[in-house]
Amino acid sequence: MGDLVEIENLTVAFRSKRREGLFRSGPSLKALDDVSLTIGENETFGLTGETGSGKSTLAKVLVALYKPTSGTVRFQGREINYKSRKDIAFLRQNVGIVFQDPVRSLNPSLTVKEVITEALIAAKSIPKKDYDERIMFITKLVGVTKDLLPRRPRELSGGQRQRISLARALVVPKKLLVLDEPTSALDVSIQAQVLNTLKRLKSELNMSYLFITHDINVIKYVSHRLGVLFYGRLVEVGDTRTINTEPKHPYTQSLISHVLTLKKAGLQEAVVSEHRPAPSGCRYRIVCPAAFERCSVVPPWVNLGSGHLVSCFLYDHLSRKENQAPLSTAAASGGNVRVPLQDPS
Amino acid sequence: MAVDNFGETDARQTLAPSVSAPPSSVARPREKGDGDIVLEIKDLTIDFVSVDGRVRILNGVSLMAKKGEVVGIVGESGSGKTTLGMAILGLLDSPPANIVSGSAVFEGRDLLKLKPGEMEKIHGTGINMVFQEPLDSLNPVYTVETQIGEALKVQRRRQDPPVTQETEGESRELITDLLRNLCIDKPEEVLERYPHELSGGMRQRVAISISIVEKPRLMISDEPTTGLDAYVQSRILGMFSAQRKAGETLLYITHDLTIASQICDRIYIMYAGRVMEAGETRGVLQEPLHPYTSTLVASVPQGFEDAPPLAVQLGEPPDLRNLPSGCKFNPRCPYAKDVCKEKEPELEAIFAGRYAACWRVDKELGRFS
């Protein structure tokens, strides 16, 4: 059985508004650069990275709010042509999205019921007589009580608003739900409730999640697999547990080591300056403690076994057994990068 | 990675409040080293008055901070954390704010009873605050350099003796070093820019550096790292620790328990404008007395995908206009008894250095029962 979503070599570039001269448009910026990933059926794929790494861009491509500059997106094996209305409708029928800001993503002049009904009208696939039944079913599932239906978003708390966003996204059954920082604006106890609801919904409604957040504690708790983005490029993909316990890419290692937990005592001092992406090659090489000459070319994907992929020259020798050279160079450069001495598989 | 380590840092051990003598009363949670108290708030009650009526934002809040201490104020939105910070700085507009009772003594002077003009002399180098929304605290028409430079000038003028001779190159170097320390790349370029040209995270760091150059004796930071990436956050927290070592006192307002557990010596857990639990950070978070604290601790996601659901009670944050009778947490509390719905518990010393406001905490046993 194939994966639900297959993204191959996806690049999304934005052109700067600033023009250089009369006829020449400004430089373009690649928000996503050659990103490939898959999301399986009933899987939660976590996507993390810092601000500006392209997490939300990927989310918006999946609901066709942005069009890819190049690359392909396949949904249930069907390649999406972003110029075809039919394909976009197909994508939106199957993919729901919940945004970060529960205030700005709900129309303030509509009641809760109207907000949810809009999604039903837009879908066109559900007969009007079933609307009420659907709304009752979904609101009960996400934990919105009946008395909230005639109210307007501003009368509700952040957690309630986020549940309504969830109800709107799921009132028409979806195969994939994209969650773009769904709990970042919420208080911890409300965040916990929403996370519990999300986990329960997934098993009850049989769908996949693309869960986007910069909070490693949250992503660790919800996702099966994890992808780490650094300035538009994916640097590491793998099982969440593996990445958290044995991060391989120097960037992932730095990211994981700065995660605060309740039990960890003693701050890890950040040693790097602003994460400035390199214009070419490995984007992390400017701040990477283990960078060496080869990093000026885009590193290949190295398969470390059981779906753990890393894009870094430090592990290059593992995929090409005849060449063991880069190990010594990396070890000599110091830093806190741990280089595996043997093949982990 | 992420090895759990229950050991403490050296700095924390030396700065942790000593718990030798049991405190006499709640309003004056005094222990050893009494003379070092920088800020002492007693019984602070603040109402907001509007056409719809009177809403109590803070209700009998008592709190103190000693020199060189990081004190955390932890709670969810609407718990009164920010109002408390603003009240200390005298920044609450009246109306709508109405200080009903209480005092806030800073270095021997009650901040709530200052004459007009006196507060301005304390602002900046005495007490300052990093606000949650950095765009509101920066002046849009001045460059970053002018704004940090101005703070630096104030700090130098108020030194004893005042430093009036300053070379431009010297202060510029100091400012660029500071920005570089806060993980800002190419600080020379950032100095030339205006606030609107910076990203949210950069603005926040500029606002923090303005506070840091003034070397205040008490710094209040209101969620200063919200929305920043993990490594920038750890750098900022590192700078705060350095300030603490230099003898500055820090009041750290946050809803994030993981941050509080990292940098705070003592924390106050607030709910609906009241202090629910207070004490040394490690004790409070590892063995909470109050059910609300337990809820907060249980809300922090831990473990992997196959971990059990987070143990949280259902229910929404309190509506301050319409609070329940008795303990304000009782509608969300799984352990509420009849007494919890009738009478409001007071914050009491449970054992040395630990306070809780809960009927179900047994003073004799010194634990929740």
User: Under the CATH scheme, which class of the largest domain in chain A?
Assistant: Alpha Beta
Q: Which residues of chain A sit in consecutive blocks of at least 5 with pLDDT less than 50?
A: 321-345
Helix count of chain A, per DSSP? 11
CATH fold title of the largest domain in chain B: Rossmann fold
User: Cα-atom Rg of chain B, whole angstroms?
Assistant: 21 Å
Beta-strand content estimate of chain B: 15-25%
Class from secondary-structure proportions of chain A? alpha/beta
Element string of chain B (H = helix, E = strand): HEEEHEEHEHHHHHEHEHEEHHHEEEE
Oligomerization state: heterodimer
Say which CATH homologous superfamily of the largest domain in chain A is assigned.
P-loop containing nucleotide triphosphate hydrolases
Kindly state the number of beta strands of chain A. 12
Tell me the radius of gyration of chain A. Answer: 22 Å
Structural class of chain B: alpha/beta
The main sheet of chain B orders its strands as 6-7-8-3-9-10-12-11
Question: Which two chains touch over the largest interface?
Answer: A-B, 59 and 59 residues
- Per CATH, the architecture of the largest domain in chain B is 3-Layer(aba) Sandwich
Helical content band of chain B = 25-40%
Amount of helix of chain A: 25-40%
